[in-house]
Amino acid sequence: MKKSIVVSISSTKFSALAFKEDFEKSIKKVADLGFDGAELAVRNPKDLKVNDVINIIKENNLEVPAIGTGQAYGEEGLSFSDPDEVIRKMAVKRIKDQIVFASHFNAQVIIGLIRGNIEEGVNRTEGEEWAINCLRKSTEFAKSYNVRLTLEPVNRYESNFINTLSEGIEFIKRVGATNLGLLADTFHMNIEEVSIYDSIIQAKNFITHVHFADSNRWAPGCGHIDFKKVIETLKKINYQGYVSAEILPLPDPNSCARLTIEHLNKIKF
Amino acid sequence: MKKSIVVSISSTKFSALAFKEDFEKSIKKVADLGFDGAELAVRNPKDLKVNDVINIIKENNLEVPAIGTGQAYGEEGLSFSDPDEVIRKMAVKRIKDQIVFASHFNAQVIIGLIRGNIEEGVNRTEGEEWAINCLRKSTEFAKSYNVRLTLEPVNRYESNFINTLSEGIEFIKRVGATNLGLLADTFHMNIEEVSIYDSIIQAKNFITHVHFADSNRWAPGCGHIDFKKVIETLKKINYQGYVSAEILPLPDPNSCARLTIEHLNKIKF
Questions:
Q1: Among A13, A44, A40, which Cα is nearest to A27's?
Q2: Does B16 score more than 80 pLDDT?
Q3: Which residues in chain B have Cβ-Cβ distances shorter than 8 Å to A223?
């Protein structure tokens, strides 16, 4: 298992030199702290100078295990389950751009919030079918780039479908694509899973990426999740991928990264 | 410690005979299962035939430890922190009506969702002051009825202020009323507290009511909260009040009540 932490690229501003420098500093800090990788949260890769990003990652000897895509939902409302077909097409287009971007790093593309919500008045089966069709188009496109997608169950307050790992597995089976895996996020699991550990065991054939955040979404060690036991469980299922800290920038961005690595370093991986 | 469970009175329909019968059945079931009390969730007590409610409770030898008031926020948008003074006044008026209703049962009045949210564009201190003023008016009124209010910290997704017990205590101190206590809800605490148990210990002088729901908001025993340890902690602080199940009606209303009492009966109170 390797360790990473999410770094957000505020893509609209990345062309500004100050922001590039800021990103460079963040990535250097991640490397200095001893992480193996940086997961990148990107709104729109088209706004990025991709070569700059590639070079900064390379210079710091980091990997990019995954690309987070939720900003396009939060800031632009793009989603796989929007009743408007045009919005769904734009969401798929955005994910295709993310797939091309991810292919430079051998990174997975996360399908989290961008799956959207089944809106009021929408038939649930129909809304799910929209999301399934978008996922089929995206995974099909991703195959030619040899990129994997990973579906993230999120808690009930962030989406009204795919909240548990088992719901995620059910959805993955319905999509029927071999390059679609499951993302297990401990913050969401603490709310949604009957047992965090049993759920990991049951999802062993599907998990391709893991997010670590404590029960209050602070760095591991700041809440009441037993990360030692989570890691032991991941070892039991022979998970070889990344555990990636997706946490609130609290008490501040530097401290939360440091607290994460300090807590994880106490645990035998 | 005594045990209760929330029963919702859909007040708009209570005047209809069918609904009264439905309420009567629910209360009888609660009594038959062995609960000591029924917490009543009421939108507007003015819509109720109060004597009918009193009689039904009495006939079943139950107590009413608390009145839930959140429906007025969810369904009517009444809140203590709304920028519109008229809305805040209507919210206080509603809570006054709840206080009169509660006085028939020696019940506490819960200030949960009705405190509202600090809306975008509102200065946080000003928004909190609005809520504090509403709470002062409500507690002052409640004194003449010998009624206590209890402030419920809820998780970040349900309100953007007073999420933890310690934030609740801070707020109670700012209000400065002797008849305002704190409500500890295990579902919210699982998300917000660094340690559920330590938080209870630290809040020992403030807790006047407790909600039990498991980590997934199902009946105790259906998630991963250790209710045995929660009860041991409540005993440590010499808590003498009610633990009241505020849970989702899943897998169905009857089963969740039965599952609650079965799980609690396994634990030494």
A1: A40
A2: no
A3: 194
CA distance A82 to chain B (A): 22
> Nearest to residue A105, comparing CAs of A152, A48, A169?
A48
| Chain A residues touching B196 at Cβ < 8 A | 224
Which chain B residues are Cβ-neighbours of A224 within 8 angstroms?
190, 193-196
Question: What is the rounded CA–CA span in Å between residue B176 and residue A65?
Answer: 52
- Residue A156 CB contacts under 8 Å (≥ 6 apart), including other chains: A163, A191, A192
Q: Would the CB atoms of A190 and B192 count as touching at under 8 Å?
A: no
Out of B157, B190, B193, name the one closest to residue A157 (CB): B157
- CB-facing half-sphere around the CA of A246: CA atoms within 13 A: 25
pLDDT grade, residue B20 (50/70/90)?
A: confident
Interval A84-112 mean pLDDT? 98
pLDDT tens, residue by residue, B34-63? 999 999 999 999 988 999 999 999 999 999
pTM reported for the whole predicted model? 0.96
Give me the pLDDT at residue A152, please: 98
Chain B residues within 8 Å of chain A (Cβ atoms) = 157-158, 190-196, 215-216, 222-224
- A and B: number of Cβ contacts within 8 A: 33
Q: Which residues of A touch B195 (CB under 8 A)?
A: 224
Alpha helices, DSSP H only, in A77-164?
85-103, 124-144
B157–A216 C-beta distance less than 8 A: no
pLDDT by residue (tens digit) across A248-260?
999 998 999 999 9
Q: State yes or no: is A246 an active-site residue.
A: yes
ipTM: 0.94
With residues binned 3-state (H G I as helix, E B as strand, rest as coil), the percentages for chain A, rounded to 5, are 50, 15, 35
Do B35 and B4 form a contact (C-beta atoms < 8 A)? yes
